[in-house]
């Protein structure tokens, strides 16, 4: 029994390490508003959210994504996508921006075509490659 628990614990730790290693470290803008993936700017989660709020919203979003994947009718797809959209808006990743300095959003733009161009061009080739 103890041996099985040790084996399970070892496998669990291996899975955690694999998940950690598989996470891509995308370039983040200095102000923390965006990260770059596939050559586009994507809005980061609102840092003012508590960890509990963020976790609950991510869980709701993932439930919606599972619903989207498993939808067998248009209505189920519509409901799942609405769940995703609601969660992403609450996370601050869609809808009104979470900052209050008047800066316009640049979501989905190439970083070199935004006010972040100087920052982007100042990154090493290796750092920029992680965002492509």
Descriptive tags:
6% strand, 2 strands, 132 residues, 5 helices, mainly alpha, 53% helix
Task: Describe this protein's structure.
The N and C termini lie far apart (47 Å). A hairpin with a 2-residue loop joins strand 1 and strand 2. The chain has a domain of 45 residues. A two-stranded antiparallel sheet has the order 1-2. It is mainly alpha-helical and 132 residues long. Helix 2 runs antiparallel to helix 3. About 4% of the residues have low confidence. It is built from 5 helices and 2 strands; from the N terminus they run αββαααα. Helices cover 53% and strands 6% of the residues. It is globular.
SSE layout and pairings?
Elements: H1 2-22, E1 34-37, E2 40-43, H2 51-70, H3 74-91, H4 117-122, H5 125-129
Antiparallel strand pairs: 1-2
Helix pairs in contact: 2-3
Oligomer class: single chain
User: What's the pLDDT, averaged over the residues?
Assistant: 89
Say how many strands there are.
Answer: 2
Distance N to C terminus: 47 Å
**Helix content estimate:** 40-55%
Number of helices: 5
Order of helices and strands: HEEHHHH
What's the alpha carbon Rg, rounded to whole Å?
A: 19 Å
Bin the strand percentage: 5-15%
Shape: globular
Walk across the major sheet and give the strand order: 1-2
Q: Structural class per helix/strand content?
A: mainly alpha
Stretches with pLDDT under 50, minimum 5 residues:
18-22
Main sheet attributes: strand count, strand direction, barrel closure: 2 strands, antiparallel
């Amino acid at each position: 029994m103890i041996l099985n628990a040790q084996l399970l614990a070892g496998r669990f730790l291996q899975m955690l390490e694999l998940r950690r290693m598989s996470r891509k470290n995308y370039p983040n803008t200095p102000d923390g508003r965006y990260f770059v993936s596939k050559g586009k700017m994507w809005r980061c989660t609102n840092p003012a959210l508590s960890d509990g709020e963020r976790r609950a919203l991510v869980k709701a979003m993932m439930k919606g994504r599972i619903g989207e994947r498993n939808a067998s009718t248009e209505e189920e797809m519509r409901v799942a996508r609405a769940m995703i959209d609601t969660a992403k808006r609450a996370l601050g990743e869609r809808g009104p921006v979470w900052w209050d300095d008047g800066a316009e959003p640049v979501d989905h733009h190439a970083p070199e075509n935004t006010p972040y161009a100087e920052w982007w061009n100042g990154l090493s080739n290796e750092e920029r490659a992680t965002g492509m």
